[in-house]
Design brief:
250 residues, alpha+beta, 4-stranded antiparallel β-sheet, 3-stranded antiparallel β-sheet, 9 helices, globular
């Protein structure tokens, strides 16, 4: 039954590059999992037992401040995976992860993930490349949140989400976008209204439709272009990293 889902692997930048024994391991020990909007993925300080590779969903990583403020510190789409703490030698995360845009992920056990890291040069190389892109994204967002307007950042967030789901329409409330941007809801509401008035987007009943992508790109801050270049390098079909070998582990 799981092999019937083999075609889905190509939609994730890491899993889509695997061949031979590596691909067989993923198919044998993994499965498709569906996430609904705001469904939890990881809780703080809880053991990570599974790693998720988004296929057409988008996951969010947020941190909780002592005053109750919640702010997004990272998003994960089809360019990557969850479970970065496992790669760094930890088995839990201090942050909360949940589904930002509903859809499917490929679920892999933490033990299989570690096995592939140890035995496959190709898998480790692509995971390391994703980690580099992810860390670069986090660094870019620090400057973005400090220097760029909520109007620019809202355009950037909408574009990044559209890239990951390959759809012009996706669910989004002002409250949710405010959390993602770490801004007051009133400011986000004004920014979304301005984008809609300009004809760049349409917003209706909790759904955003991108009407003029080129205009949104022109409106978004420079951080969108920087992040897109990082992740596009992962998603290009011709991208090759590593030597394709598996290592024998004693």
């Amino acid at each position: 039954m799981r092999n019937n889902h083999e075609h889905l692997l190509k939609n994730n930048a890491i899993l889509g590059r695997l061949t031979g024994e590596d691909r067989a391991t993923v198919l044998k020990d993994g499965q498709v999992t569906s996430f609904k909007l705001r469904q939890g993925v990881y809780d703080p300080d809880q053991r990570i037992n599974e790693v998720y590779f988004p296929i057409n969903s988008v996951l969010s990583v947020v941190t909780h401040m002592e005053n109750g403020t919640v702010i997004e510190i990272g998003t994960i789409g089809r360019e990557g995976m969850t479970g970065i703490p496992l790669l760094m030698g930890a088995d839990s995360t201090p942050n909360t992860s949940f589904c930002q845009v509903d859809g499917e992920c490929w679920e892999m056990s933490a033990s299989t993930f570690r096995q592939l890291l140890e035995q496959s040069d190709t898998f480790r190389a692509f995971v390391n490349r994703y980690l580099q892109a992810y860390v670069n994204m986090l660094g870019q967002f620090i400057g973005c949140n400090r220097l760029h307007s909520v109007y620019e950042r809202a355009a950037r967030w909408i574009l990044m989400t559209q890239d990951r789901v390959d759809e012009d329409e996706f669910p989004l409330t002002h409250e949710f976008l405010a959390t993602m941007l770490g801004s007051r809801r009133s400011g986000v509401t004004l920014a979304a209204a301005a984008l809609q008035k300009a004809g760049f987007i349409s917003y209706h009943r909790g759904c955003i439709t991108v009407l003029d992508r080129d205009a949104l790109v022109g409106t978004a801050c420079e951080c969108y272009g920087v992040t897109k270049r990082e992740f596009d390098a992962m998603l290009r079909p011709e991208a090759k990293i590593g030597n394709g070998k598996r290592r024998e582990v004693a």
